[in-house]
Amino acid sequence: MDKEFLAKEAERLAKDPVFLEVLARIRKSAVEQLVNTNADDKTLILTLQVYAKVCDVFPDEMQAMIQSSQQKRAFKAV
To answer: Where are the domains of the chain?
Structure first.
């Protein structure tokens, strides 16, 4: 896949209310489960933390895809 296609799809998803709601629900569920998880269940705690973290960094990664396809101008010395 080329950068332009990825950027266009990332831009579409960044504005898609269903996609954003799915991310929000996954994160909310993970945090709620973390609150109720037994402190000795380290594997589940790590798994739920990863779910929440992915939901947090997903928008940043999409923004990076959008920006990576934009033309970069050469800097000119003043």
So the answer is: 3-15+22-68
